[in-house]
Amino acid sequence: LTIACASAFWLAGMTPFDAISHSFSTIAIGGFSTHDASIGYFDSYAINLITVVFLLISACNYTLHFAAFASGGVHPKYYWKDPEF
To answer: Would residue 56 count as lying in a domain?
Structure first.
């Protein structure tokens, strides 16, 4: 998950160091940044969207991800039925 997040950040225009650093912070939901303006430093809609997507994925219970993916493909019904959402 961290590698996917770092790759997405890098493809969206971050330097490799920033991409890796921000992916660690995003997946851990820590909110730390290498810049004083945090993610706003990059002024990029794509980077903001990547951050939101990976924050939502990371905030979710990993057992729920396993249930949704284990039966061969993504089954959104597991997410919609879960009280966490």
So the answer is: yes
Q: 58 near 26, Cβ under 8 Å?
A: yes
**Using CA atoms, how far apart are residues 8 and 42, in angstroms rounded to an integer?**
14
How many domains is the chain partitioned into structurally? 1
Each residue's pLDDT tens digit, 3-38? 999 999 999 999 999 999 999 999 998 888 999 999
* pTM for this predicted structure: 0.84
CA distances 34 to 16, 22, 31, 64, Å, are 12, 8, 10, 31
Which residues form the domain of 13? 2-60
Q: Which two tokens stand for residue 65?
A: 């991800």
Neighbour tally for 58: CB within 10 Å: 15
